[in-house]
Design goal:
Layout (H helix, E strand, L loop, with lengths): L10 H4 L2 E4 L4 E4 H6 L18 H11 L14 E2 L8 E2 L1 H6 L3 E2 L7 E2 L17 E3 L6 E3 L6 E3 L7 E3 H15 L9 H9 L10 H4 L36 E3 L7 E3 L15 H10 L7 E3 L12 E3 L22 E4 L15 E2 L14 H21 L6 E6 L4 H9 L9 E6 L10 H17 L4 E2 L5 E2 L3 H5 L2 H14 L10 H9 L14 H11 L4 H10 L1 H6 L11 H14 L4 H11 L4 H7 L1 H8 L8 H7 L1 E4 L5 H16 L7 H9 L14 E5 L5 E3 L4 E5 L4 H20 L1
Parallel strand pairs: 15-21, 17-18, 21-22, 22-24
Antiparallel strand pairs: 1-2, 3-4, 5-6, 7-8, 9-10, 11-12, 13-14, 15-16, 19-20, 23-24
């Protein structure tokens, strides 16, 4: 090395040793980085990592006049930055003499006498404890070789262990091994001379590191495979395509071998089915033997029966849309009821043509199916929640700062049950903790949508807010969204397709579009480049915006009109993705809370329906599907249900002073349907009472039995309107 004079090639200790034959130059990267008289004056690809060759020659000549205070040889290029200290030394000598080199800002160096030290209080426990990296003992001493975590009282490390950990993890994954703190921990370690490289973790850079995980199981495991070409034969988009078990993924079947009509149907292997059956979460499907005419090669085989078709909808009367939707559960039904189902005592009800919107697009139907799937997934995640409670004191007028304070309090845990108390006067009436929690999450999601953390009109991407990065607000936003989904709050519904794909598939696999650029000037510049119709106009446009291109790292010669396509693509990637690398990584980490991001990556289509699309507007049909009607044998079930559904029709059509949101709020304390659904499920009871009663703790609506529909409607409107008016006041 021209600076330290050593031949050692130890990248972890001295940085990468590079030899440049054309310049007759060999240098350690750390020696070059810490030298006191040289700066990076070139671009990254110029000279040696931005250090110009002429500058390196000058630094070598300067150092040749300085003697190392440690080895007493010439070439000491590094000096202590302490005032009035004139010590100089080589980088390897400084390491040996326990000097500290700060790999940040001005790359300062401190000699063994002036180096920064960590503060140890008298209350610090003596003795020794395990280094949480190598698990060997480390003494609690204020020594160079020992470092203490700034965020954990009892976390101690060997300096050498921390340095190897930092080199392996990189800036994105290096954090406290005990509490997972990143910002405070990294700041202290940089001050104490730990080098944290600005690159991805080593395990992320290893080529084909996860190749084994890409193997897909391709084998038919049913008892009798019908495929003549064998159990391993797989022909996509045909009946011989292999479908894997939806739960374990380690068993498969040909579509034809399990009587599956299409790839969209779910399939479970025998083992998973038996486990679910024991847990009571799976209803055993009927099986049927093929008739003689359905036998294959004269051999009978046992196939699963496809799911039964939905019954036809009855046209019904305008007010009695009985036969599909709300789940009317009636105990002790009389034998004369033509709606009785012998097996389950459940009366199904259907919507009339007035209620149901038969013109819904396939996209809307698909979104409904995906939202139902998300509901089941979130219920699985909810199992993690504990009975321990965390109380959040929230001011609705200052929702963000009070929510941030609550999420950062010491006793906050995402797995605890959350109780919300509104401290401002306007919301003191919300004494119901469930209603307060619904209202809190609704306000929080609305604030996030309009905050500076996101940019765009409808579909939003992350913005670049350096103050928010510094305060780790992107992580908190991701954590709040994850907590809201699992704890029964509303979904954000404002993610752009690009942001969602970056979270699920990784930013390197996403191609942004022009509409993702929120800055109007930037979008117009890119648009001018994109729609240039000749080489001369393209070059003229590029000449006018050369500073803009240079800032994005896209300043390069253009010799053909077709070059604009790659240029536009690179500009979009820079402005939409590369520019927000740190916010995106922090936001992803926040979404990992309670396992939400992992489920998003496993079920992208399902989560896209709630994160990228606004919630479905409440309709009479939606409310019908939501409630289960329970009643006893002495009540006219059909007449009561008829009044209830007719009333919903009137509300939806605007023939009422209340709204569907008012009805939902009256019963559940929430004016929206959470992605996870309600717990317990909303129910309706018809009782001999004077006025309706909404029991929000039980999500139960008790309705009066009346002789006429008009009486029923008058009582509903009077009660709901007055109750909500009092609460709002």
């Amino acid at each position: 090395c021209v600076l330290c004079g050593r031949t050692d090639d130890c990248p972890k200790k001295y940085g990468e040793k590079k030899t440049y034959v054309e310049y007759n130059l060999t240098v350690h990267y750390y020696c070059l980085l810490m030298s006191s008289g040289i700066w990076q004056r070139g671009e990254e690809d110029e000279g040696v990592d931005g250090f110009l060759i002429t500058d390196i020659r000058k630094e070598v000549n300067r150092a040749a006049k300085l003697k190392c205070n440690i080895c007493k040889k010439k070439g000491a290029s590094i000096g202590c930055v302490a005032p009035k200290c004139k010590r100089s030394y080589h980088f390897p000598c400084g390491i040996q003499r326990e000097c500290i080199f700060q790999f940040m800002e001005d790359f300062r160096s401190y000699c063994w006498e002036h180096r920064p030290v960590q503060k140890f209080t008298d209350e610090e426990p003596g003795g020794a404890s395990q280094c949480t990296i190598c698990l060997d003992l480390v003494e609690h001493l204020p020594a160079y070789t020992v470092l203490k975590s700034p965020c954990c009282k009892n976390a101690w490390f060997h300096r050498e262990c921390l340095q190897y950990q930092a080199l392996s993890a990189g800036i994105f994954f290096f954090r406290c091994t005990v509490c997972n703190n990143k910002d405070k921990f990294q700041k202290e370690m940089l001050r104490m001379g730990i080098h944290i490289p600005e690159r991805d973790a080593s395990w992320e850079l290893e080529e084909n590191a996860y190749q084994d995980l890409l193997h897909c199981y391709q084998h038919c495991d049913v008892k009798r495979c019908l495929c003549k070409k064998g159990r391993d034969y797989n022909e996509p988009d045909s009946k011989w395509e292999i479908k894997r078990c939806r739960y374990c993924g380690s068993c498969g079947t040909h579509l034809a071998c399990s009587s599956m009509k299409s790839w969209e149907q779910n399939w479970e292997c025998v083992e998973c089915r038996s486990i679910l059956a024991k847990s009571g979460k799976y209803s055993k499907r009927k099986k049927r033997a093929l008739a003689t005419s359905e036998k294959t090669n004269g051999t009978p085989c046992l196939l699963e029966e496809p799911p039964p078709k939905s019954p036809r909808q009855s046209s019904g009367s305008p007010r009695s849309f009985l036969l599909q939707s709300p789940k009317l559960m009636c105990q002790n039904l009389s034998p004369v009821s033509h709606l009785e189902l012998p097996a389950s005592n459940r009366v199904t009800m259907s919507l009339s043509p007035v209620m149901s919107n038969r013109n819904w697009s396939l996209t809307q139907k698909h979104l409904r199916e995906q939202r139902r799937e998300v509901c089941n997934i979130l219920k699985e995640l909810k199992i993690q929640l504990k009975t321990n409670t965390t109380r959040l004191n929230i001011n609705a007028e200052n929702i963000w700062s009070t929510a941030l304070k609550g999420f950062r309090q010491r006793n906050f845990s995402p797995t605890n049950t959350i109780e919300v108390n509104f401290s401002n006067c306007k919301d003191r009436s919300k004494t119901n903790s469930y209603a307060s929690k619904h209202h809190f999450f609704q306000l929080l999601m609305l604030h996030l949508q309009n905050s500076s953390l996101f940019e765009g009109s409808s579909g939003k991407n992350l913005s670049l807010d350096f103050q928010a990065v510094k305060e780790n607000l992107y992580f908190e936003a991701g954590r709040m969204i994850a907590v809201s989904l699992v704890h029964g709050g509303p979904p954000p519904g404002f993610f752009s397709k690009t942001l969602f794909d970056c979270l699920v598939y990784g930013p390197e696999n996403v191609k942004p579009a022009l509409e993702d650029v929120a800055d109007v000037d930037v979008a117009q510049t890119i648009q001018m480049i994109k729609y240039s119709n000749s080489l001369s106009s393209l070059q003229s446009t590029l000449q006018d915006c050369c500073e803009f291109l240079a800032a994005a790292g896209c300043l390069r010669p253009v010799t053909a009109l077709c070059d604009k396509n790659m240029l536009v693509n690179d500009l979009l990637i820079y402005h939409v993705i590369k520019r927000i690398t740190l916010p995106l990584e922090s936001f992803r980490q926040g979404l990992e809370t309670l396992g939400v991001l992992e489920k998003m990556q496993m079920h992208p289509d399902a989560f896209r329906s709630i994160l990228c699309h606004k919630p479905e507007r409440l309709s009479a049909e939606t409310i019908c599907d939501l409630f289960t009607i329970r009643s006893s044998s002495d009540v006219n079930k059909v007449k009561g249900a008829d009044f209830w559904m007719g009333y919903l029709q009137d509300v939806e059509s605007g023939e009422s002073v209340v709204t569907l949101e008012d009805i939902l709020l009256f019963v559940t304390g929430s004016c929206y349907i959470p992605s996870i659904g309600f717990d317990p499920e909303p129910t309706i009871k018809f009782l001999h009472i004077r006025y309706p009663i909404g029991k929000t703790l039980l999500n139960c609506l008790e309705l009066p039995i009346t002789k006429t529909y008009q009486q029923f409607k008058n009582k509903m409107e009077l009660t709901i309107r007055n109750t909500l008016r009092v609460e709002r006041e």
